[in-house]
Design a protein that fits this description.
Blueprint: H1 2-17, E1 30-33, E2 35-37, E3 42-49, E4 54-58, E5 62-68, H2 77-85, E6 89-97, E7 101-102, H3 109-115, E8 123-133, E9 144-154, E10 157-169, E11 174-183, E12 193-194, E13 199-215, H4 221-225
Antiparallel strand pairs: 1-5, 2-13, 3-4, 3-13, 4-7, 5-6, 6-8, 8-9, 9-10, 10-11, 11-13, 12-13
């Protein structure tokens, strides 16, 4: 049952991982921002069933950010934070390969990929359209409270999504953290039943994310697309 449930984890992973960029208004002319995901970046989903709880973790993701022509490529974490504060980040495009989604039962992961029709729709995608920094009083100290709006595409179905999270600057880069509750049926996925209906999966799932966005190109091609 667990891998089947985990397949629905994929539906939400991308939406919260999308906060990895928290960009400004999308669609404006701009230039790509050289960034990478730092060590310790992680996303995970939690769900429940009548039998047990479950989790699912992606092992790879691709992230592309763009800035306005009025901005400049950030040289360090401070400059990256300033770019976000000034609304000079204009676009975010995050993709999670479906076949990078793994449970703790390696032999069961094919159930996950099949449920998401991975051969036909190989990636889950989040494209941010707008973001805003919430009032300072809603944040603690130098922590930013952020609200992002965008489109989440899963198995060919595109849905609008609104995300909230918090960001703070560290020596290594900009940390982003938060969680989001979502419903499987919003993506046309019916929570499964097994054992003649005795085992049922709850429709609601929660996605957690804690991501480190670093200024500069990754040290290798593998780091640009994969974080294990």
């Amino acid at each position: 049952m667990r891998p089947i449930q985990a397949s629905f984890a994929a539906c939400c992973v991308a939406s919260l991982v999308g906060l990895a960029g928290l960009a400004g208004s999308a669609g404006a002319e701009g230039a790509r921002i050289p960034t990478s995901l730092g060590e310790g970046s992680t996303v995970w989903l939690e769900g429940t069933s009548t039998m047990h709880d479950y989790e699912s973790w992606p092992t790879a993701m691709k992230l592309r950010l763009e800035r306005s022509l009025a901005g400049a490529d950030p040289a360090d974490a401070r400059a990256l934070e300033a770019l976000v504060r000034a609304n000079h980040v204009t676009s975010l495009d995050l993709q999670v390969p479906v076949k990078s989604l793994l449970s703790d039962k390696g032999g069961l992961d094919k159930n996950l990929w099949k449920a998401l029709d991975a051969d036909k729709y190989p990636e889950i995608r989040f494209q941010l359209s707008h973001y805003s920094i919430l009032p300072h009083e809603a944040a603690a100290g130098d922590t930013l409270s952020l609200k992002a709006e965008g489109l989440l595409t899963i198995s060919g179905q595109e849905r609008p999504d609104t995300l909230t999270g918090r960001a703070w600057r560290a020596e290594q880069g900009l940390w982003l953290e938060g969680s989001q509750k979502l419903l499987m049926n919003h993506f046309g996925i019916k929570p499964p039943k097994m054992m003649l209906g005795m085992l049922k999966v709850a429709d609601e799932i929660t996605v957690h994310f804690r991501l480190l966005i670093q200024a500069g190109e990754p040290r290798s091609t593998a780091e640009a697309t994969e974080r294990k």
